[in-house]
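SECTION: protein entry
WANTED: fold as C-alpha cells:
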Amino acid sequence: METLQQAIENITWRTERFPEKDFEIIRADKNAAIPLLRGAVERAILEKEKLDKNYQLHFYAIYLLGEFQDREFFPCLLKLAALPEKTLDFLIGDAITEGFPHILYNMYNGDLELLKRSVCDRQTCIYVRAGMLEMMGQLYLDHTLEKAEWQEFMRRIIYDNGETDDYIYTKIADLICECHFMEMLPEIQGLYLDERIETGVIGEYDECLDRMFTYHDGREMFCISPINASQMLKGWAMFQDDSSESEKKDRIEDFEKFFRAYDREFNRTEPKRKIGRNDPCPCGSGRKYKQCCLNKPKSPVELIESEQEKKKWLRDYPPVKKDEQKDRIYLEDFYDRESIETDKLLYLALKHRGIPMWRAETEDTVKHRKRIYLTGAFKRFQAVTEREKTKSFQEYDEKHSIHYFCEQWIGILRELLREKDEEGILEEVCRVCEKMGKT
C-alpha cells in the first residue's frame, strides 16, 4: 500500500496525468501531510525562480492546504501572494486567477487588518489583489464584515489610496453592484466618467447598472467553501485528457446544443395577445383600452418594433417591483414611473444587442431604430424639463437619469438627426443642448 511519503514524492514533480490517487492518500492523512505541504510553499517563497520549473509540490500544496482550511498558515500564504507578479506567475501560473481567491478564503484566519494591508499593497499582483477584494465581498455576505466597514474600505481605495490600476477600480465597481450598494452609485459614475473602468471586463455603465438589480438563484457567492483540490485541478489543460471518446463526443454535442439554443432564443417570439376593448390599456394609464389608446394613431416608437421584440430586448432591464422580496432593491425604490419609462426608450436605443454575427443588422437599420427611440425619449425629456423648469442636464440627471446621462444620449441624437431628420426636430435639439449647457 502506498504511503503518505510516497504520495508526496509522486506530486513533487510535474506529471502528464493528474495524480488523483496520491491526493486521496494525502487527504486521508492530512494532519501528517500539512507540515510537508507548508514546507513546500515556504521553499517556493524562499527560492522563487531558482526552483526547478518541473517542481510542482508547492503548487499542489496551496490547493490542498486550502481544502484542509489551514488557517494558521494564512500569513505565510499572503507572503506568497506578495511576491512580484512575474515570480508568482512562475510559481503558480494560472492559479493566480483560477482558484487563489477560494484558497485564501478557506485559509482566512480572521486578521482583517492584515488582509486590508495586503489589498492596499500596490506592489502585489493586481489579480491577487482583486481576488482578495472578492474575498472581502464574501466576508460581507457571510456577515463577518460589516456593511459600513466594507463600504468605507472601498471608498478609501477609490478616493484616498492613490490607486493607479484601473483593474482594481473595475473590480470595486463590480463588487459594489454585486453587493447591491445603490448608495455607492455616485462612486461608480465617477469611475466611469474618469475613464477608470475597463469596459472589456464589466461592460459599459448601462450593463454595470443592470447587475446592481440582478439577483442570482440561491445564495450569492464570490468564494466557495469548502473546496475540493482534485475537482479544481484535474480538468486543467496541463494534464492529459483521459476522457473516453464517448465523453469527448458528449462535450462537442453540448457545445453545439448551446449554439442552437442561442439561435432559438434570438428568434423566439412571444405569442401575440389580443387586447380586449374593456381590458386595462397596455400604456399603463389605468383606464380601459377603449377609453384610452384604442383609436389613437400609432407613434413611430410604437411602430418601430413589436411589443414582443421590445420585451425581448428589455429582458435584462431591471425587473419591475411586483411580488416584493425581502432584502432586494428595485428601480421603483429610487425613480418615479415616468423616469423609468423614458429610460426604457433609451435602453432600447442604446443598449448593446447581442445579435448573432450571422444575423447582423445593417448600419442604417440600427441608426433608424436609435433615432426613433431617442426622439421619443427627447419628447418625454422636454415635457419634464418644461414642467419642472429644469435649468441644466446635471439637474435633470440627478433626479431622473438611470442608465444614460442627458449629455450623452442627446448628443447621439443630435448627430443622428444631422444625417436624417424625419420629424424636423434637429433645431429644437440643438437649442436644448445650448440652453442646458452643452457646447
Observations:
- The chain has 23 helices and no strands.
- Residues 363-388 form the longest helix (26 residues).
